[in-house]
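Entry 12.
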Amino acid sequence: MIASAQSFPLHVFAMNTSRRLGEEVARSLGSSLSPHEEREFEAGEHKSRPLRSVRGADVYVISSLDGEKGASANDKLLRMLFFIGALNDARAARVTAIVPYLCYSRKDRRTKVRDPVTTRYVARLFEAVGTDVVLTVDVHNVSAFENAFSCPTEHITAIPTLIERIRQRGISLPVTVVSPDVGGAKRAEACRKHLAAHLGDDVPLAFVEKERSEGIVRGGSVVGRVQGRTVVIVDDLISSGTTLVQAARACRAQGANSVIAAVTHGLFAPEAGVTLAHPSLDAVYVTNSVSASRLPTGHCRTKVVRVDISRLLAEVIHRMHNDDSLSHMTDVYVPERKVVSAE
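Predicted 3D structure (tokens):
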């Protein structure tokens, strides 16, 4: 990794499937995306290359690696890897992969005999093409993410950005922050500290006891104070929505007045539209870290509020390019500025 990037030109690319997010990031930086080409060939093959010289440049590549119609997580991963390889062949000084949602990050340990540890394999692929830094947002298990990579990694959280949007829209006191399981307690604690600081009120932490086996979630007793309170359930992602709704139902059963969810990655499996329509859950706040095509349809769509994280990512790029610390962005960071200079 190079000692300082300040003296090198800055280039920000976004793979086609993340172009909309990339354009918002570039706009917040006061610039535009650097041009690149993604070309299709017969038999499903493809190539990607920069259309501007990157020799000696500090380069950032944005691509969220969720699967969507016409572009699986595997497709997106391979395209990003090939593009990073091409950037290194073109003599970029440093290449940082900005991956808001990192595919396979949930498979970070063996849960069955002879299970793969896919997070580690994905890390090896990024390293093999010469990625200098990998940055992601609210990964499922931060320690597993950091330990999987030999190259430097950065991890930031969007939870305070979500909470700030909830606060702006109005939230009734008193409030309790709830983790849907014990494993998410650290994430929920960061949210609790942020809310307590901005609401000027005591904000307790609670969690829901649950057990998951072979895709089936069981449990539902709440440990903590929720009676007569607004509950904010904090998690890293939504897939089927079962975990969220079970937590919401458990909170309602113990007297919660209202239940709001703040979740970074809205993956929304097909069944999520039905699951999240349950009346125990009042609203679901998710970021635009993944494709909007994944948003649920039907009645529950009115519950979903999408929160932009482009300024958060722009601040990351600005700070990394200027060799500034990201430490305050890993816990309770909320971006203040609308536009960040790239100079």
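Annotation: Residues 332-343 have pLDDT under 50 and may be disordered. The chain is about 30% helix and 25% strand.
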